[in-house]
Amino acid sequence: MPIIKSAKKALRVSIRKHEINDATRAKIKSAVKGVKVGTKSNDKNIDELLSKAYRELDIASKKNVIHKNKASRLKSRLAKSIAKIADVPVEKKAKKSVAKKTTKKK
User: Fold this and answer.
1) In angstroms, what is the C-alpha Rg of the chain?
2) Which of 3, 34, 45, 46 has the fewest CB atoms found within 10 Å of its own CB?
3) Rounded CA gap, 30 and 20, in Å?
4) Average pLDDT score over residue span 17-35
5) Distance of CA 66 to the CA centre of its chain
6) Vertex 29, ends 55 and 42: CA angle to 5°?
7) 15-86, what's its fold?
8) Residue 35 CB: number of other CB atoms within 10 A?
9) What pLDDT, in 10s, does the model give residues 72-94?
């Protein structure tokens, strides 16, 4: 247990943030699971579930509960799973062609 006054306060703040972060992670898990269950059962309001999941992921990444790359990775995977049931082709980014540089002869 902390003895110094500032350490006691830091412990209180840490516990409070831990509880808030756990609640945020639980919201993310339930939202993502809702989308996954919706895709398996061909739910009609899948768009609402997807937007809720996107919202929760964006909030969590903004508050540094999860890393922004993890949020974008999860959103990408959710979009792919919905595209499978909708039979809509997922757009792939075209690779940029880089021209090779040649050295000039002297």
Assistant:
1) 22
2) 3
3) 16
4) 97
5) 7
6) 80
7) Methane Monooxygenase Hydroxylase; Chain G, domain 1 (1.20.58)
8) 24
9) 999 999 999 999 887 755 566 77
